[in-house]
Amino acid sequence: RLMKKVCILGKGLLGYHLRWLLDQYGYKQPSYRQIDALDFTIPSDSDEVFKLSKGCTHYVNAAGFSCGITGNLEKPYHSFFENSQISMQLLSAARSQSHIEKFITILTSCAYGDSGEILEEKNFLKSEPNPTVAPHGYSKRNAFLTGLYLSRQFNFPAYGFILNNLYGPRDKFDGTGKVATSLIGKIVRAK
């Protein structure tokens, strides 16, 4: 079978593990040393990533400003603005790249409304996210809508992939992480 060259944007928990998994399955990937030094909130850096990842046809945007529950409450503007900016800059820069076959943006279930409805795609934009994660949730809704409108207007192959939860090795269990990791950390420290 023909192996696609895949570029994982973001070196955090998910990006690290996706890169490792792709490597295990023999997928071609770019050298990440220079890519990981880029700041995707800066338009020229978002453009540069596509020069450094020459030959890639598939991209996964796992990049983001991670601040956990505490950061969402204490720095709501930073959580919302920086995460929105990263996704919008990368999608905007990707639009002009004719070689891209798929651009997947990682979304999060905290973007769902806090209405108690079942987490189904049709409910993704209904009601407001929980206040403890609203800044991050709204930034992921921005990423989803940016990809949706790029797809509609320019036939750009943008996709959103919603994760219900994410935790594991290399995560923050000290209370500064996400809900699941904070809870796991509290349980472990309580022993």
What does this structure look like?
The longest helix has 21 residues, at 134-154. The chain is of the alpha/beta class and 191 residues long. The chain has helices at 13-24, 32-35, 43-52, 68-74, 76-95, 134-154, 179-190; strands spanning 6-9, 58-61, 102-108, 158-163. Strands 1-2-3-4 form a four-stranded parallel beta sheet, with helices on both faces.
Main-sheet strand order equals: 1-2-3-4
Quaternary state reads single chain
Could you say which structural class the secondary elements and strand pairing correspond to?
A: alpha/beta
Spatial gap, N to C terminus: 50 Å
The total count of strands amounts to 4
Order of helices and strands: EHHHEHHEHEH
What are its keywords?
single chain, four-stranded parallel β-sheet, 11% strand, alpha/beta, 4 strands, 191 residues
Which secondary structure elements does this structure contain, and how are they paired or packed?
Blueprint (H helix, E strand, L loop, with lengths): L5 E4 L3 H12 L7 H4 L7 H10 L5 E4 L6 H7 L1 H20 L6 E7 L25 H21 L3 E6 L15 H12 L1
Parallel strand pairs: 1-2, 2-3, 3-4
Helix pairs in contact: 3-5, 4-5, 5-6
Brief summary:
The chain contains seven helices and four strands, in the order E-H-H-H-E-H-H-E-H-E-H.
